[in-house]
Amino acid sequence: MEFLEFGHNPWLVAISLIVALIAGATGLSLTKDLSNKTLPQRRLAVALASVALGGGIWSMHFVAMLGLQLPILFYYDAAITLVSALIAILMVALALVLLHFTVRTKSVIVLAGTIVGAGILAMHYVGMAGMQLCRPVYSALGIVGSSILAIALCIVAFWVAYGVRSNRTIMAGTVFFGVAVFAVHFLAMAGTQFIALDNIREFGPVISNEVMAIGVILSSFVIFGAFLWVGTTYLVPAEDLDQTALASEPQPTAKPAQSDLRIPCERDGGKVFVAASDVAFVRADGHYTQVYTMTDRYFCVWPITQAVQRLIPAGFLKVHRSYIVNPNKVARFERSKDKGQCNFGVEGLPPVPVSRSHLKEAGAAFG
């Protein structure tokens, strides 16, 4: 078995790193501030971010492969190449769904990073399987090393980007993501040799490096265009920010009045703003909350922690780890040993439990 000598074009190596970084910045920026968006907007943002991150993984790989210098002519199987792109996009989509549509715990962040790391590996090796007229031969060290690096760096990337959501952490997560995609590819390539083949193992249409270059240029163009689009969100003047988000921000120097505070909610697929003064209580619902008035119930994109931050300064009272009540709406407070409940005197509106740790505060508030 005679292995082929090979090398890489340094310019295309550098460009592949830039593509990975731009894709990371685009995808992670698209998922910024989703708690202030409606459910359809969140779904669209996660879908676009999945295409940006997954497409960036694919584009980085094939930009680097365009720089692969072998002494023979080789081609790619179009069907397998397409499958490799779909794998990357779907794996990233699964990770983002976990991060944005479930309770974002530490274990969920680790799981999401693991899934994306596995997606990078799957995309790489499936993409390599599409090579025609030469066959890659892998070493156990290259597979194991690239697997550990992919998963570890992706976990770090999502841990940084999603631990505390800010522009700084998103950019730091971008660096880890871009380095993960780039380093995994070249570590895997360092443990790979190539053998020349006489026949094409055709599964789908065969495409040349020239046609592949056109596809990679188009995908990179879309990613760079999306990056320029989302990049403008970091440059928007303060006075042009979303007025809804600004109106609901607690003021550090003044206690907000309930009549002035509006809670962004959804019902029947539409977005509505409920006055805090009309709210009876707020209940945690996974990563989001349910807002109850005396007559209606609404879905709210705020997690319970954000609801506490916004509503406690406006006079609301936390009576349970999952409940916040408006004292102005409580008709009767009942205590029984080490627990209690708030009743609102309205048929159909359930009572709110008061936990033992909040009994003293509730007793003081309701007498």
Automatic annotation (TrEMBL):
PROSITE patterns: HTH_LYTTR, MHYT. Residues 8-195 form the MHYT domain. This is MHYT domain-containing protein, NO-binding membrane sensor. It comes from the Bacteria. One of its GO terms (molecular function) is DNA binding. PANTHER family: DOMAIN SIGNALLING PROTEIN, PUTATIVE (AFU_ORTHOLOGUE AFUA_5G11310)-RELATED. The chain crosses the membrane at residues 12-31, 43-68, 74-101, 108-126, 138-162, 169-191, 211-236.
